[in-house]
Automatic annotation (TrEMBL):
Entry GO terms, CC: EMC complex
InterPro entries: EMC3 (IPR008568), EMC3/TMCO1 (IPR002809)
Residues that span the membrane, as ranges: 12-34
Recorded family membership: Belongs to the EMC3 family.
Protein name, per record: ER membrane protein complex subunit 3
Membrane topology: Multi-pass membrane protein
Subcellular location: Membrane
Cited SMART domains: DUF106
Record flagged with keyword Transit peptide: no
Length: 257
């Protein structure tokens, strides 16, 4: 037997739908400003770390631009220079461990500790408001049918749109209060973009609301820097020579034809 259509009180829009949306927008804006206040102050990087990264980038740049040389001997001289210059530990921030199989503890690095502490602060500023809002909606509006969608949906959407409503024969187009909360949770990006006028803050805020924290890379989690230097030097030794003068006539003709 089909279930007759429900008659929804028009006051639900004013006393349920609007308060939930307004509270979520205001809490989201407040959380964005709290996140800005919780951002750590910029710190000067260790000059040894900067030097290490720049010399590693120098090796990678030459490997990718090996065709800028005229003669093969010129390229070989440059490779020999790099091998003699970067084979040691001159440009490393820290000496490699004596045991090559030793795994460095990423938590021992001060920068990693700061990253983890910042991540805990951001997660705390995210989970507490979300938990309070969900408790507020679930406590005061549990079991409320607050609206009906103006289009038909399949039965797969029933569990998503009718949470806290224990009926099996209610039409899937009816939406509960807690489901309206989740719809707002995922669909307020355009409102935040209009109010905050900052794309980075909006993206970070939406990631926080969807419980997807932006985790920075932890130092020491990847291969050691000395191994990266050795790998780049090995890649340089197998680079095929290609003169910058090869095909210069055709390139010149194509440019000026």
């Amino acid at each position: 037997m089909p279930v007759p259509d429900l008659v929804l009180d028009p006051a639900l829009k004013l006393w349920v739908l609007l308060p939930i949306s307004v509270v979520m927008v205001l809490v989201g804006i407040l959380r964005s400003y709290i996140s800005v206040l919780l951002q750590p102050k910029m710190k000067l990087q260790d000059y040894k770390l900067v030097r290490e990264q720049q010399h590693l980038a120098r090796l990678r740049t030459y490997r990718r631009n090996y065709s800028v040389f005229w003669a093969k001997q010129e390229l070989q001289n440059k490779i020999d220079f790099f091998i003699s210059e970067y084979s040691g530990t001159k440009y490393l921030k820290e000496l490699p461990p004596s045991d090559p199989n030793e795994i460095k503890n990423p938590l021992a690095d001060a920068n990693s500790s700061d990253f983890l502490l910042q991540m805990v602060k951001n997660n705390f500023a995210n989970y507490v408001p979300q938990t309070l809002i969900m408790w507020w909606v679930n406590y005061f509006f549990k079991g409320y049918v607050v609206m009906r969608l103006p289009f038909n949906l399949t039965g797969n959407f029933k569990s998503m749109l009718q949470q806290s409503i224990d009926t099996t024969d209610l039409d899937v187009t009816y939406v509960s209060a807690i489901s309206w909360y989740f719809v707002n949770l995922l669909g307020l990006k355009s409102i935040y973009s209009l109010l905050l006028d900052d794309g980075d803050i909006v993206n970070q805020l939406m990631a926080q609301q969807q419980q997807q924290p932006m985790v920075p890379p932890i130092a020491g989690a990847g291969p050691s820097v000395d191994k990266q230097f050795k790998a780049e030097l090995e890649n340089l030794q197998i680079v095929p020579f290609k003169s910058c003068l090869d095909g210069i006539e055709s390139r010149f003709a194509e440019k000026w034809e």
